[in-house]
C-alpha cells in the first residue's frame, strides 16, 4: 500500500483537469483573480521596487511577469518577487484549516513556469488546484508551533510539485522531490509580525524560489531523506504530524473551496475581532462615537489573542494588531488600504483609542478553534453604558461567505487605480475564463 506521501504525489501527477470538480475550478480562478492586484500593490512599495531592481539587474531575462512593474524576468526571480509582493499587504487569500495561505505559496511559481513554457491556462490552473491542496493538507496535518509563521514552510512542497508537474518531471521523482523540498523550509517566526519586520514577507517568496530550486536539485541528482515532510513538520517546525489526516478524503474533499478571501488588509485573526465589533455596532440602539469609549475588552482564541499590540510602529505592524484595527475602523475617516497606512498609525485619535483596547485569550475559545473562531467584545462608554458583540464564524468562511458585491468592490478598489477601469474588466474576464487561454504568455499585454 502507498503511504500518505506517495498518495499526495500520485494525486499531483495523475489527476487530470477533467477530474477536478467545477466548483474547485471556479474557486481556483477566483483565488488567482484576487491575488494578482494584491501582488501588484505590494510590488509598488518602495522596498519591493528596490529589491526588484537589484534582482533583475543581476538575473537573466525571461517572459515571466513581475506583476505591478509591467516588466518580465526569469521564472525563479519572478516567482520569488511575486510571492513576496503578494504577502506584503496581508490582503491575500488564506485557509484556517491549512494553517496559512496556500495560494500565495503556489501561484507565483506555477504562473512563472507556465509563462516560461508557454503553457495553457488549463495546465496552470490544474497545477495550482492540485498543489494548493497538497499545501493545505500538509498544513492541516501539522500541529505547527505557535512561534512559526506558516509562509515559506508547507508552501515549498507545493511550489516544488507544481513546478515539477508543469515542467514534465517524471512522476517517479515526485516523492524524493517532496521530501527534499520539505527539508528546505525557512526558519520563520511570528515575532516578525509583532515587530512590524517586513522580512516576514520574504517567507512567501521563499516558497516559489526554493520550490523551483528543489526541482533543479533533484534534476541534478540530489536526494532528500526518506520522509522529509514528516521529519520537518513533526519535529522541527511542528509538535506533531498526522499523515493519515493529510490524505483523508483526498480527491473528494477539496480544502481549496474551504478557504477565505479578505476584505481587510490584516492578519486573518484580526478579522474575527472586526466582525465582533461590527456585530456590536449593529446591535447598539444608537451610534457610538469613538471619543465616547472608556475601554474595550476583547476575549479571543489563542492566535487572535497573540495580536494584542496596542501601538504598532508602522503600517506593516498595524496589520497584526487587533487594538489598532478596531480603533482605525471606529475612527472611520479612512477606508481600505488607507485605514492601515502610516498616517493612520500616527493619528492621535487612533493611538488614543487603541490604548484603551485590551485583548486576552479565552482558553475555551482556543479549544474550539478552528471549527469556531470565537471572539467576544465588550465596550464601555465614559458614561457607563455597556455594549457587547460576538463573532463565532469569521466572515468569508464557507459557512459565512462574503457577498459577490463585496468581493467585486475589493477587486475594483485595487485593480482600477492600478490599470484603469477597462483593463481591470479585461483582467477579470481573462482570469475567470482562464481555462480557455492557449498560452499564458499571451494572456494580457498590460500586466508585464
Tell me what you see in this structure.
The chain is α+β, with helices and mostly antiparallel strands and 448 residues long. It has two domains: 4-263 and 410-442, 2-methylcitrate dehydratase PrpD; 268-391, 60s Ribosomal Protein L30, Chain: A. The chain is built from 20 helices and eight strands. The chain has helices at 4-14, 22-43, 46-58, 75-88, 102-117, 121-141, 154-167, 174-182, 191-194, 199-219, 228-236, 243-247, 268-283, 302-305, 322-331, 342-345, 348-354, 363-368, 404-419, 421-432; strands at residues 64-66, 71-73, 142-144, 238-241, 293-300, 357-361, 375-381, 386-391. A four-stranded mixed beta sheet has the order 6-5-7-8. Strands 1-2 form a two-stranded antiparallel ribbon. The longest helix is centred in the first third of the chain and has 22 residues, at 22-43. The protein is globular and about 70 Å long. The model has no long low-confidence stretch (mean pLDDT 96).
Helix and strand arrangement:
Elements: H1 4-14, H2 22-43, H3 46-58, E1 64-66, E2 71-73, H4 75-88, H5 102-117, H6 121-141, E3 142-144, H7 154-167, H8 174-182, H9 191-194, H10 199-219, H11 228-236, E4 238-241, H12 243-247, H13 268-283, E5 293-300, H14 302-305, H15 322-331, H16 342-345, H17 348-354, E6 357-361, H18 363-368, E7 375-381, E8 386-391, H19 404-419, H20 421-432
Parallel strand pairs: 5-6
Antiparallel strand pairs: 1-2, 3-4, 5-7, 7-8
Amino acid at each position: 500500500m502507498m503511504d500518505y506521501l506517495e498518495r499526495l504525489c500520485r494525486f499531483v501527477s495523475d489527476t487530470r483537469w477533467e477530474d477536478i470538480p467545477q466548483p474547485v475550478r471556479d474557486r481556483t480562478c477566483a483565488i488567482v483573480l484576487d491575488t494578482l492586484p494584491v501582488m501588484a500593490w505590494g510590488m509598488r512599495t518602495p522596498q519591493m521596487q528596490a529589491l526588484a531592481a537589484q534582482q533583475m539587474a543581476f538575473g537573466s531575462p525571461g517572459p515571466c511577469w513581475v506583476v505591478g512593474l509591467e516588466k518580465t524576468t526569469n521564472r525563479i526571480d519572478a516567482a520569488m518577487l511575486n510571492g513576496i509582493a503578494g504577502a506584503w499587504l496581508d490582503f491575500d487569500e488564506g485557509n484556517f484549516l491549512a494553517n496559512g495561505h496556500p495560494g500565495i505559496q503556489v501561484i507565483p511559481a506555477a504562473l512563472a513556469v507556465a509563462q516560461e513554457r508557454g503553457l495553457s491556462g488549463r495546465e496552470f490552473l490544474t497545477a495550482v488546484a492540485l498543489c494548493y491542496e497538497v499545501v493545505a493538507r500538509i498544513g492541516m496535518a501539522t500541529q505547527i508551533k505557535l512561534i512559526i509563521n506558516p509562509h515559506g514552510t508547507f508552501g515549498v512542497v507545493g511550489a516544488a510539485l507544481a513546478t515539477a508537474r508543469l515542467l514534465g518531471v517524471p512522476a517517479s521523482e515526485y516523492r524524493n522531490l517532496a521530501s527534499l523540498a520539505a527539508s528546505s523550509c525557512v526558519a520563520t517566526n511570528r515575532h516578525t509580525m509583532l515587530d512590524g519586520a517586513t522580512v516576514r514577507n520574504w517567507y512567501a517568496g521563499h516558497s516559489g524560489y526554493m520550490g523551483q530550486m528543489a526541482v533543479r536539485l533533484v534534476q541534478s541528482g540530489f536526494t532528500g531523506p526518506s520522509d522529509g515532510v514528516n521529519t520537518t513538520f513533526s519535529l522541527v517546525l511542528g509538535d506533531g504530524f498526522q499523515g493519515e489526516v493529510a490524505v483523508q478524503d483526498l480527491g473528494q474533499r477539496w480544502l481549496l473551496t474551504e478557504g477565505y478571501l479578505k476584505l481587510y488588509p490584516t492578519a486573518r485573526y484580526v478579522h474575527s475581532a472586526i466582525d465582533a465589533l461590527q456585530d456590536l455596532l449593529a446591535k447598539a440602539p444608537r451610534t457610538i462615537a469613538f471619543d465616547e469609549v472608556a475601554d474595550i475588552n476583547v476575549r479571543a482564541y489563542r492566535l487572535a489573542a497573540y495580536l494584542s499590540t496596542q501601538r504598532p510602529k508602522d503600517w506593516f505592524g498595524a496589520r497584526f494588531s487587533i487594538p489598532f484595527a478596531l480603533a482605525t475602523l471606529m475612527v472611520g475617516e479612512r477606508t481600505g488600504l488607507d485605514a492601515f497606512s502610516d498616517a493612520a498609525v500616527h493619528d492621535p485619535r487612533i493611538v488614543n483609542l487603541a490604548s484603551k483596547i485590551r485583548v486576552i485569550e479565552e482558553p475555551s475559545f482556543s479549544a474550539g478553534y478552528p471549527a469556531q473562531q470565537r471572539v467576544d467584545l465588550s465596550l464601555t462608554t465614559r458614561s457607563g453604558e455597556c455594549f457587547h458583540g460576538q463573532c463565532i464564524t469569521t466572515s468569508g468562511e464557507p459557512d459565512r461567505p462574503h457577498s459577490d458585491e463585496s468581493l467585486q468592490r475589493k477587486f475594483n478598489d485595487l485593480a482600477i487605480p492600478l490599470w484603469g477601469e477597462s483593463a481591470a474588466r479585461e483582467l477579470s474576464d481573462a482570469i475567470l475564463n482562464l481555462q480557455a487561454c492557449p498560452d499564458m504568455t499571451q494572456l494580457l499585454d498590460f500586466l508585464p
